[in-house]
Amino acid sequence: MGNHEDAESGIKFEREYNQICGKMLQEEREKRGISREELARGILSKTALGHMETGRIGWTKLPGDTLMHRMGVGTDYFEVVASAEELDRWRRREDICLLLPARPGEAVGKLREYRHAYGKREPLEEQFLCKAEALLALLDWRRDGEEADAARLSDMARRAVHCTVPEGWERGMEDLWLAPSELEAVLLEAAARMVRGREEEAWELWQAVRRYPKAHHWRERVEALIAPQTAMLGIWLSLQGRRGIGQPVFAFAREALEMLRRNNSHSYLLPLLELMGRMRPRDGGEAAYLEQAAEFRDAFRRLYEWFGYPGYRIWQGISVDNTREIGVVLRMLRKCEGKSRARAIHDEEGIIVTERQLEKIEKGVHKPSYENYQRLMRQYGKCGGWKTAMVEADSVEVLELRQQISTWIGRREWERVWIEIERFRRKVDATYPRVRQELLFWEALMKWKKEGALEEALELLLRALHCTVPPEEGRDLKWWVFEREESIIASNIASVYRRLGRLEEAGKWFDTVMFSLEQQRGRTGIAHSGYGILMDGYDNYLDDRGCLKLAVEMNEEAICNFLKWPRIDSVASILYAYAWNSYEIASKEPKLFDVLRPKWNNAFRLCQSLVRFRYDYHFEEFLQVREEKFLL
Q: Which of 361, 371, 411, 489 is least surrounded by Cβ atoms within 10 Å, i.e. has the fewest?
């Protein structure tokens, strides 16, 4: 990558993309003492997993993420590339998710289209389709309550489980390695058993799923992918059966909700809150908690209704906000380098592909071989892994520590930030480009946020960016494929320029990052990670330029984008920006006051609720000071 591929770092740290993803998987598997056969069972062969771990075959998104999830490891810490077809299939599955359970007729049509379009499907794909069809059967049973529907549901639920889970799983589920998406199929089987009158068996399966994540030492970010569904089933079983809602069910529903709150997630949030509204408290503590849950329920109802988002929907086992499409990546980097296709097809070994083949690869029609992909990438100065791990051992732990440091910086708890950075230094090699980038970035944020030294912060941010991004000279940097950390740093560069009053430079950087991210969202419609930081700064820039109406439009678009993610970290701040911008427009145009007042009032109240949902005490204090302005 330009000037960072120097003698000090290039040879030592260059790794192949597949080898890095596979190595992280292998390290986690070996740390847990899991054999390849145990981990791969039902998804791929032991031999294929071995080839994936060593980089001999390409890493693919759905099985790769699911294998990590089987070990309780989140996959949003590192970024990956995928083929156009992989992302097209994800988009079609997402369309089904958005239709269920509210629009079953349309969902049935989409399921048929998927099966017709892709006759060859991975076991995990088939499991997704079977789960969706089993849910439709459950909806039919709830409507009709007939024995035939109950039998059909039971058959479909078992078929969903057996897509990836071997026969006899009930007798030893604790010995299997299953992902949250697979445990969902087990929950459907539990519901089917309740429908068939086998209540005790249903409760036994519920208990098995409830215990599973902690028994397998999952990280909470992955446990949160199954906890709300488990809690919902517990409440539903209680309402359907003879037991009533007992303390274990209430306790787990509360635990699941708290997991979502700590992880800023709204996955299955509204249906969980709706079901919790049917619980009857036994004491004052439970009553107070359910009252707060009802507040969140009402707030999210209003939020979803306002922005036309389905509060009742199902979620896929994987997310793609950290995933980029191979063809788009190659096209963008070629344009950034200013190369024609004719110049890009050659390297020192000769012709990589024909010009026509490269055109088809860039359009997503063809998928390049792994070797050709690497050779093409090197034409554009992007060598080494796509998201190379910082260290060869404990790489997931280091990635988690990075995230913790960013959280403490956001909360301005500087003493804790310093302690965690020192921990980070002891675990990494500071000569590695991405490590240098992180350390420079954190130093820049402390100069800015803690000391207010903007010029020093700007210099550090530019140095940090250029650890992995080539200098702008001779390149059209808007075509650079900004990864998460790069887009965050570039967005902060723009924000510091804005704070220094250098609006022209700020606008150039904001537009560069926005263009890059927009180019990359084509096949999925999902904004990539880093978008939230960009929008926080872009809003302030538009305010400075007096473009308040455009800022409001972008606020609305940003919230629609954020709701597509399971995690909704940035929604509260954009709601506040919406309230602020609407109020300022009315201040300048009094005739709009009565039209805009309900909007900023609603946005501010929703912001308050989401801040309480996230336990963001600093933001909550900030809002309390401003209540008089926005609510009177």
A: 371
So what's the pLDDT on residue 387? Answer: 40
124 exposed, middle or buried (CB, 10 Å; 0-12, 13-18, 19+)?
Answer: buried
If DSSP codes are grouped into helix, strand and coil, which group holds residue 80? strand
- Taking the model in full, what pTM does it have? 0.91
Q: With respect to residue 577, please indicate whether it lies within any of the assigned structural domains.
A: yes
With respect to residue 13, please indicate whether it lies within any of the assigned structural domains. Answer: no
**How distant, in Å, are the alpha carbons of 130, 248, 301, 318, 469 from that of 227?**
21, 14, 21, 15, 39
CA angle 629, 617, 605 (to 5 degrees): 40
Q: Among 145, 143, 251, 232, which Cα is nearest to 188's?
A: 232
Residue 2 has pLDDT above 70, yes or no: no
pLDDT in tens, 180-219: 999 999 999 999 999 999 999 999 999 999 999 999 999 9
**DSSP per-residue string spanning 494-535:** HHHHHHTT-HHHHHHHHHHHHHHHHHHTTTT--PPTTHHHHH
Q: Which domain holds residue 285?
A: 84-307
Residue 526 has pLDDT above 90, yes or no: yes
Answer yes or no: is 139 within a domain: yes
- In 3D space, the residue among 509, 566, 517, 565 whose CA is nearest the CA of residue 538 turns out to be 509
Q: Domain boundary at 307, 336, 355, which?
A: 307
Domain-located, residue 628:
yes
3-state secondary structure of 619: helix
H helix runs in 263-394, sequence order? 269-276, 284-307, 326-337, 341-344, 355-363, 370-379
Q: Which of 285, 307, 329 is the last residue of a domain?
A: 307
Number of domains making up the chain: 2
Q: Which residues contact residue 310 at a Cβ distance below 8 angstroms, ignoring those fewer than 6 apart? A: 98, 99, 102, 304
Q: What is the pLDDT of residue 463?
A: 95
pLDDT digits (tens, 9 = 90+) for 528-537: 888 988 998 9
Element (H, E) at 195: helix 180-195
Tokens of 198: 């086998």
